[in-house]
């Protein structure tokens, strides 16, 4: 369109720029629909042919950039993208959820010359980087680097796994650098862009679409433990098993890259810098309390996931059965990531998250009395469902605290950065408390207390926001 520049009598031809939608929308449903009136606020100043004068109106620059966006809400292309993201979740976060297999193998065989606390740093650093890298990958996604991030993360993941297959037994630093740091960065590069692209296709059905996508990580966490246990303890052995796993993930990620396509979205020229985001959002007291709650929850939430298989074997459960405990937990998590999301739009994210975290906290303490096969299986099913529900409901919960759609991505990035710190410190502390004598009650009490503290933070935020907004639907 032909637009008159503000401080010039000359005219130029310009068009609205486009870029990827911010990670924001990776969160959940928008806070409010864009009305027709909002789109009319974008008022072009059009020159009549052969005339140098025009009728102009004062237009708010900030509001003029809010261009109405339509969402397909389905269709072949949209659901194909969902499937592509599902595959990336299966290969990336799903692989992180299978770390318990590696932890068990490292403690008992491959890194037996090191303590459980030292080995725990591998999984904790990986988990921390997966989440904390989001503040970088999210902003890069906003600027149109979706394919760069996804291709780079995929290549790095496969490379690190192949290199892991040639590490030497007993060399902790080699495993730490490749699996803890390398794999963590690779998955972190793919995580937020992967779920962010879904928000370009869905608005009203976004929670459901994201729930379906993140179920890939749960099913990956079910599939990878079974196949890795078979390979590590079977004819392939550890090194060849890791190579086979790298090849499998590489092939699946290639398929995902071929079927995912981005859509053009209005650019955001006034995004807050990363430092400014921290300064602004952490002054929001309910938000700050919630962020601390997510840090505390993650410090305890992954203890049962990382140590469940080892705990089952040490309790005398047959290894053939114990190998399936992690797969069962992650299989139940797939249902937990989808079913609760169906009720978010009606009841509110906090009203769904709080009961799920409450049950998860109780289940962590219940492991004090779980010492047989039947109890372990029941625990795996229940804990998988409610821990999976929390993982998928975290973005909608943060979204509900945002004042506008334009800041959701930044709030998510800040939140994930601190949440990653919880993952960083949680499992190593649990490993230290466990010790070489395997005193299980100590890490159980620690993990249960962390989850409970997070629960209290969420309840506090809900009470504050309920009074502020005058509604119970939060």
From TrEMBL:
One of its GO terms (molecular function) is transmembrane transporter activity. The chain crosses the membrane at residues 78-99, 119-138, 145-166, 172-196, 208-228, 240-260, 285-309, 321-340, 347-368, 374-393, 414-434, 440-464. It is a multi-pass membrane protein. Its main location: membrane. Pfam families: MFS_1 (PF07690). This is MFS general substrate transporter. Residues 272-474 form the Major facilitator superfamily (MFS) profile domain. Keywords: Membrane, Transmembrane, Transmembrane helix. Gene3D superfamilies: MFS general substrate transporter like domains (1.20.1250.20). Belongs to the major facilitator superfamily. Monocarboxylate porter (TC 2.A.1.13) family. It comes from Coprinopsis marcescibilis. GO terms for cellular component: membrane. It is found in: Membrane.
């Amino acid at each position: 369109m032909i637009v008159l520049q503000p401080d010039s009598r000359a005219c130029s031809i310009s068009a609205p720029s486009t870029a990827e939608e911010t990670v924001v929308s990776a969160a959940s449903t928008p806070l409010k629909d864009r009305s027709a009136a909002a789109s009319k606020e974008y008022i072009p100043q059009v020159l009549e042919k052969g005339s140098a004068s025009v009728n102009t109106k004062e237009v708010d620059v900030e509001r003029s950039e809010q261009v109405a966006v339509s969402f397909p809400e389905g269709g072949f292309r949209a659901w194909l993208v969902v499937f592509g993201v599902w595959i990336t979740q299966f290969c990336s976060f799903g692989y992180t959820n299978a770390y318990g297999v590696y932890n068990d193998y490292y403690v008992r065989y491959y890194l037996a010359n090191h303590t459980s606390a030292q080995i725990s740093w591998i999984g904790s650093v990986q988990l921390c980087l997966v989440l904390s890298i989001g503040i970088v990958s999210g902003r890069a996604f906003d600027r149109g680097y979706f394919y760069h991030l996804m291709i780079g993360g995929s290549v790095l993941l496969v490379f690190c796994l192949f290199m892991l297959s040639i590490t030497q037994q007993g060399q902790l630093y080699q495993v730490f650098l490749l699996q803890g740091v390398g794999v963590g960065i690779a998955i972190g590069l793919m995580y937020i862009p992967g779920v962010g692209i879904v928000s370009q296709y869905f608005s009203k059905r976004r929670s459901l679409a994201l729930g379906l996508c993140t179920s890939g990580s749960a099913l990956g966490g079910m599939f990878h433990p079974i196949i890795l246990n078979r390979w590590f303890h079977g004819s392939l052995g550890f090194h060849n098993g890791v190579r086979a796993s790298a090849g499998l993930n590489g092939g699946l990620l290639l398929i995902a890259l071929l079927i995912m396509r981005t859509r053009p979205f209005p650019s955001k020229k006034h995004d807050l810098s990363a430092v400014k985001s921290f300064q602004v959002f952490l002054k929001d007291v309910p938000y700050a309390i919630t962020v601390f709650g997510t840090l505390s929850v993650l410090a305890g939430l992954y203890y049962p996931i990382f140590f469940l298989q080892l705990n089952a074997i040490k309790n005398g459960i047959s290894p053939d059965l114990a190998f399936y405990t992690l797969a069962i937990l992650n299989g139940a998590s797939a249902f937990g990531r989808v079913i609760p999301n169906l009720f978010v739009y009606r009841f509110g994210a906090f009203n769904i998250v709080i009961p799920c975290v409450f049950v998860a906290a109780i289940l962590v303490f219940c492991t004090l009395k779980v010492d047989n096969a039947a109890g372990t299986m029941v625990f795996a099913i229940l804990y998988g469902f409610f821990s999976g529900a929390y993982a998928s409901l975290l973005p909608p919960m943060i979204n509900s605290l945002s004042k506008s759609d334009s800041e959701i991505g930044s709030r998510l990035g800040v939140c994930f950065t601190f949440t990653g710190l919880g993952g960083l410190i949680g499992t190593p502390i649990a490993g230290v408390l466990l010790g070489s004598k395997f005193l299980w009650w100590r890490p159980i009490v620690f993990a249960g207390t962390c989850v409970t503290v997070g629960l209290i933070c969420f309840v506090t935020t809900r009470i504050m926001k309920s009074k502020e907004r005058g509604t119970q639907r939060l």
